[in-house]
Amino acid sequence: MIYEMTVQVRVSDIEKGQKWYETLLNKKPDFIPHDGFAEWELIPGCWLQVAEGTLTEGNGPIRLGVTDIAAERDKLINELNIETFEIHSREEVPVKWGTFTDPWGNRIGLFEYKSEDEKQERIATILGGEYLEDAKF
Asked: Rounded distance, CA 55 to CA 49, Å?
């Protein structure tokens, strides 16, 4: 039975990488077990690890669900100076999506459910109904 997951990206400078990912994720790491390594629990049981080490080209993308992809893209362009990226949509796909690259070549994507009802249902399923009562989207 699979009950938890981690995904790892590599950066050449952990201080710069940690700061960049703190801005992307809008929070400090949840766990720093040792030098050269930081972890964020993105949703319960789903961890993003940023490790200092040899870069790997062409990995990813890691796709992150967001409530407003256009607003997140604008924020990332302004705060992290990423290149603008196109937001894609296909009629048969329930989400809009776009992909960009961090300064170390890791591909990261964002996606947003097109249906507000489906988005709220997914958030409630993953984060729990109590989260919805407190959340302001």
From this structure: 14
> pTM for the whole thing?
0.83
Name the DSSP class of 68. Answer: -
Which domains does the chain carry? 1-51 (3.10.180.10), 60-137 (3.10.180.10)
Judged against a pLDDT cut of 80, whether residue 136 lies above it is answered with: no
Query: Rounded CA gap, 22 and 123, in Å?
Result: 22
Beta strands in the chain (DSSP E): 5-11, 37-43, 46-52, 62-65, 88-89, 95-101, 107-113
Give residue-wise pLDDT tens across range 41-84.
999 889 999 999 998 877 789 999 999 999 999 999 999 999 99
Helix axes 69-80, 14-25, angle to 10 degrees: 150
With beta carbons less than 8 A apart as the criterion, state whether 95 and 12 touch. no
